[in-house]
Amino acid sequence: MNLFNNSKVILLLCLCLCSLSSLAQQADTTKTSKINGNGAKGFVDRMQDFARKSALDSRQEFEADKALAVQVRIFEETRLTMQNAKSYIKSGLDTLEFKMTLSDIKADYEIAADGVFKHKGTAQTFRNLTATKKVISELIKEAGERKSRLDSRQAVLNGYRFRLDSLLTTSELFNFPKDSAELVKYLGSLVTIAKEIHPIDSTLKLAGRNVQLLLNAYNMEINGLKISVDEIEQIERGMAMSPFKRDFSNLGDSPIYSRPFSEVLTFSKVKGMLTLKFYAINNSIKLFILLALTALSFIYLRSLKQIYTAKRLLNKDYEGQLVIRYPLLSALLLVISIFQFIFISPPFILNVIFWVISCTCLSLIFRGYITTYWMRVWLLMVFLFLMAAVDNMVLQASRGERWFMVAVAMAGVIAGSIILFQKRQHELKEKWIAYSIGFMIILEFSSIVLNVIGRYNVAKTLFIGGFLNVVIAILFLWVVRFINEGLVLAFDVYTVQDKKLFYLNFGRVGSRAPFLLYVLLVLGWIILLGHNFPLFEYLSQPLVTFLGKDRTIGDYTFSINSLFLFFAIMSLSVIVSKIVSFFTSDEHLVSSRNKDAKKQGLGSWVLLVRIFILSTGLFLAIAAAGIPMDRITIIIGALGVGIGFGLQTLVNNLVSGLIIAFEKPVNVGDIVDVDGQGGTMKSIGFRSSVITTWDGGDLVMPNGDLLNSHLMNWTLAGNRKRVAVVIGVAYHTDLQKCRQILMETLEAETRVLKSPPPVVQFEQFGSSTIDLKIYFWTKHMSENNSTRSDLVIAITNAFKINEIQIPFPQQDVYLHQPKEKNEGDFI
Question: In this structure, are residues 489 and 506 in contact, taking their beta carbons and an 8 Å threshold?
């Protein structure tokens, strides 16, 4: 507040000035007047008191004005907060949905707990424990997601209540006006705000209480589920550490506990479908990727078969071509066998579905290809495997099931022994199958013995593992064989790219599957078998812990998993970048062999796409590995120093490549002449470009040299180049008739363009001929040489018919003989 605007202060100053003036006049005019000192001093004291009181009043008025501004702001913020709270409450929380979900979770838990926490029987089974843990883990995840939503809503509701409470407890609200009228008005505003806040506050309290009740219920359920998982893991740990511990009495003894087998089948079916449902929902994207890969593989194999059919290269018995016999079946077999490993810890029933589809596909592909004997062996192995798989989905042991296991295992031992003793392994397409059959005999015989003496869990593991070993071995061996066949077939008949084959360059891919694929498939075989053993998880757990443990170097914390992830992402980026480069590599071969082939359209943009892929992969890898960006800044700074001193040429070539990609003076597949060297642009890379010369060699040229050279790009002109043919005719030739014959010959040639029209020009008088030139254009410059050759033949024939002579170059030589000397002549 401005002090000079206060009327009291102005009045005080005026009084002071008048008093001082009067005193001065009295002192000058009447020195003899006696002034009462005590009275003057009292007057000054009163003036000072009055000034202090006025200053205090001014400060109080200033504080009152400031408090009024704060009060207005608080009222506005309070109303805005109430409005937001009303809107949030109206958005609502479907408590009925949360209650139903909680009820469903409890019902699913009751299904999962059957055979583990109730109706336990004599002993636990590993398969039942595994299935139960998977279901409960999914229930924990679902309950956790609901709990997170409830926590979020509770936090928002509490936030609104805290905001209102903090606004209403601000000290400025209790700074009441001194004026009675203002006080009444202010108190009315407080009453109004209080009336508005009360229902909102009550609603917030009620909503918070309801959410808290749901939270308590979910927290209690989650805690119970986690306790159940801990109990299951404790039981599994005991089974893993003592795999040969007795589970049941001997097979010949009377059972201690009995449960109707129909109940066992019912809860096993329900629990199995429950695990499959949860897993399918959580991995729907992976299932979609699997279907997409199958579709792409089918298109590729079908296109390859169409090529072989069109070229009549298919063998009647499909020897070496079995992969393209049924493209859809082969695609299903290949994709499922290889990419099933993208599913982490899938339920057994999903694995069975994958294996059944793969076995069905391979059986149909085998039909009429392998010998009848080995076809029956394969079908027998598949049948025994299906019997074991169905038994493995029974989650609780029973005496009848144990006898069933013994019978099927005995059938496997007898069948395998007969197969090996007949010694017909020389008929096998894949010799390693015999070893898997021998391994099956060992596992199944061990299963019988252990089952008889009451070691049920390990016996059941060996039971399913024996038949699974044969089926997986046969599937994987044929998968590798089919990959080899697919690459060899594509390499043999299609060394150039086409959109039907996804533009793959098989000359660069190779004609055989890499040895690493064999190693990976053997590793996959071990993993699939190992998942059936309780000890497998606990043996692999230390390795998983070791890989995931955080390590520190200086200020940087990392794990081996993060390093692996970094290199995996970078490797994937490089692979994708190379695959993209296949889209344009060798395109010129397509256009030269098939004039109707269309350009792929990516051209030199592939370089930019590759840079984008690699850059994205690098940043994703850095983010995934958790590498601090300040370390990257240091590396980039060091790289900048290196560029300044020794990498100028490399950077020049890289920048030149980018300029080529953007300005596009040349594109992949263009026909070019560079400093007299002609050919087709094969690829444009980071540092250099490749030109395939007319002689068949690949000329590697740095991008900087390419950009600075005198580049002739024939493709920019429509892939056309004018052709000139020089002809010489005799001097006595009728030139008008010669021109007419030549024009008729040119018009008869379909490869010669009519626009621009061909031209016949007489050039000069030669030593023995009148020289003329024929100029013409073809539809594509790749036809120039063949057209020129055919025209030379046609013109020669036309000149012979019309008796037009093309003379040989000739010269007249005159020999001067000296005159003979007479006898009388003297020298």
Answer: no
The pTM is what? 0.61
Which phi and psi angles does 8 have, rounded to 5°?
-65, -40
Amino acid identity of 781? M
Question: How far is Cα 676 from Cα 689, in angstroms, rounded to an integer?
Answer: 17
Phi, psi of 698 (to 5 degrees): -105, 115
Q: Is the pLDDT of residue 759 over 70?
A: yes
Cα–Cα dist 679/697, whole Å: 9
Contact between residue 359 and residue 475 where contact means Cβ atoms under 8 Å apart: yes
The first and second tokens of residue 62, run together, are 């200033």
Higher pLDDT among residues 826 and 71, named by residue: 71
CA distance 565 to 549: 14
pLDDT at 417: 92
**pLDDT at 640 (0 to 100):** 63
Asked whether residue 747 carries a pLDDT value surpassing 70, the answer given is: yes
Token pair recorded at residue 500: 């039907």
pLDDT (tens digit per residue) in 324-334: 888 999 999 99
CA-to-CA distance for 126 and 463, rounded, in angstroms?
A: 13
d(CA 678, CA 692): 8
- Under a CB-based contact definition with an 8 Å cutoff, are residues 206 and 154 in contact? no
| Cβ contact 373:522 at 8 Å | no
Percent of the chain surpassing pLDDT 70: 73
Phi, psi for residue 713 in degrees, rounded to 5: -110, 105
- For residue 729, list its beta bridge partners: 770
Outline where 114-179 has alpha helix (H): 126-168
Hey, how many other C-beta atoms are within 10 angstroms of the C-beta on 202? 10
- Omega before 756 cis (within 30°)? yes
Among 40-44, 188-192, 577-581, whose mean pLDDT is lowest?
Answer: 577-581
Distance CA 607, CA 685 (A): 6
Which 8-state DSSP code applies to residue 369? Answer: T
Q: Which residues contact 243 (CB under 8 A, 6 or more apart)?
A: 457, 458, 533, 534, 535
Helix, strand or coil, per DSSP, at residue 602: coil
- State residue 253's pLDDT score: 72
The neighbouring-strand residues paired with 771 are 728, 764
Q: Looking at per-residue confidence, does 567 or 377 come out higher?
A: 377
In sequence order, the 6+-apart residues with CB closer than 8 A to the CB of 569 are 617, 620, 621, 624
Q: Has residue 776 got a pLDDT over 90? A: no
Helix (H), strand (E), coil (C) string for 416-452? HHHHHHCCCHHHCCCCCHHHHHHHHHHHHHHHHHHHH
Query: Among candidates 625, 721, 611, which has minimal Cα distance to 672?
Result: 721
275-305 pLDDT, tens digit each: 888 888 888 888 888 898 898 889 888 888 8
